[in-house]
Specification:
CATH superfamily of the largest domain: 2,3-Dihydroxybiphenyl 1,2-Dioxygenase, domain 1
Number of domains: 2
Distance between the termini: 30 Å
Helix content: 10-25%
CATH class of the largest domain: Alpha Beta
Shape: globular
Number of helices: 2
Strand content: 25-35%
Strand order of the largest sheet: 1-4-3-2
Length: 121
């Protein structure tokens, strides 16, 4: 077997409207216009990769390591300028934890507590 690339990640959210506001408006991801899911959720296209949000009423992500968010399950996305992202997220009231590695990267949480890494590449 030879795995050639990652196709998509699916994450659970409890409230699709709040999740859509975060992923679409705050992070600026673009919903796939030609793709729809056969269940409550959304599909985002990020270059050749997809992010699927799947509604699970009552879902709350469990952050096991509060000290270092990067040591929890998380989704990592590339950004051009991590300092601009930091200022943007802070202005919107989202929690921020800078990477302890010294890399130009930060972690934030969506409305359900899912951890998102935004890393400058």
């Amino acid at each position: 077997m030879k795995i050639t690339r990652c196709l998509h990640t699916a994450i659970l959210v409890s409230d699709l409207d709040k999740a859509e506001q975060f992923y679409s408006q705050v992070l600026g991801l673009v919903k796939s216009p030609e793709r729809s899911l056969k269940y409550a959720g959304l599909w985002y296209q990020i270059a050749e990769y997809q992010l699927h949000l799947i509604v699970a009423p009552g879902y709350v992500s469990q952050v096991v390591n509060q000290e270092k968010w990067g040591r929890n399950p998380h989704l990592a996305l590339a950004v051009d300028n991590v300092q601009q992202v930091k200022a943007h997220l802070e202005s919107k009231g989202y929690p921020i934890q800078m990477s302890a590695s010294g890399r130009a990267a930060l972690f934030t949480q969506d409305p359900d507590g899912n951890i998102i890494e935004l890393s400058q590449v």
